[in-house]
Amino acid sequence: MYLKKCVKDIACLKKFIDITNASIKLGHWSLYFKVSTTIIIFKLNKKSYDTLKNFCSIILLNTIRKIFKNVIGERLQFQAISNNFIHQCQLGGLKQCFSIDTDVTLTYVIQLGWARNLTTNTLAFDITYFFSLLNHQVLPVILLKVSFDSKISIFFQDYLIRRKTSYF
Predict the structure, then answer these.
(1) What is the pLDDT of residues 69-78, one digit of tens each?
(2) Which residue, among 19, 32, 24, 21, has the nearest Cα to 154 in the 3D structure?
(3) How far apart are CA 84 and CA 86, in angstroms?
(4) Domain count, the chain
């Protein structure tokens, strides 16, 4: 409750932004924010629980860490948009871009194909666990290659290492 009020206060929110910007400038992410707790839940009605896909994991993060992650996400989105890193058809997850925009774009592409007597296919996939599978040595190199600020690349080198989770 207190954090909700704090985030709505512009002066307090500015402190979160200042701390995040200082972390990026120093290229360091505190070990305190690299710790999480994962709760493993059995998926119901499975014949066997010998494979990972029969379980659901819920990662619990420190509440303050969630605020910092949002600030970092905003910063990354700003960098991505300002460098034209995100194709205009990749609307999902961007601030002020909604799923209806994606629906309209997809409908347009399909109808354009039909008008040209083409068959249109669509491929959709869930990238929920993509970040945890990402090669952490490659991400900072990619960020540099696509003209992200070098401070962000250096920050992510530290952000991605020495992470720990405890299972509950």
Answers:
(1) 888 887 887 7
(2) 24
(3) 6
(4) 1
Distinct helix (H) and strand (E) counts, the chain: 7, 3
- Judge whether residue 86 has pLDDT over 70: no
Lookup: tokens for 117: 């007597």
> Residue 147 sits in which domain range?
2-167
Local confidence band at 1 (pLDDT 50, 70, 90 cut-offs): low
Q: Judge whether 20 and 67 are in contact, CB under 8 Å.
A: no
Residues 99-109, buried b or exposed e (16+ Cβ, 10 A)? eeeeeeeeeee
Residue-wise over 55-84: b if at least 16 C-beta within 10 A, else e?
Answer: eeeeeeeeeebebbeebbeebeeebbeeee
